[in-house]
Structures are given as C-alpha cells and as structure tokens.
Amino acid sequence: xxxxxxxxxKSIPDELVRLGLTQSQAAKLLGITRSTLNHNIKADNNSFHxxxxxxxxxLESQHHAHVK
Length: 68
Prior knowledge:
The protein has four helices and no strands. It is an all-alpha fold. It has one domain (12-67). The termini are far apart.
C-alpha cells in the first residue's frame, strides 16, 4: 500500500535546514529529546510530519511579525 503524504517537502532534516534549525533546537522547540526527534524522523509517520509543518508555520509567522 502506498503511503499517503499530507505534508509536502523533501524530508524532515531538509525542512529543519530550510528553517535554519539544528536537530537540537527543533527538539527543544517541540519539547522532546534529540533522541526522540531522531526516532520520529526514522519512523516517518504522518503525525510527526504535521508537527514539523506546524513548527515551520509558527516560526515563519514569528519571522513575519518581526519584519513588519
């Protein structure tokens, strides 16, 4: 069965790079350990992709709020 993707980007590590975050910084923002972050990246489940998507939108909204 083909896995359905609801969040579209190349990979979570690439998305973190695009956001300018290290894995440690991302883990801290998500309230998890770096080990848990790495486990979730390898598990590649949709719920974790939504968490990264939400984090990206949050950080981008914060950036735009400061640019105005």
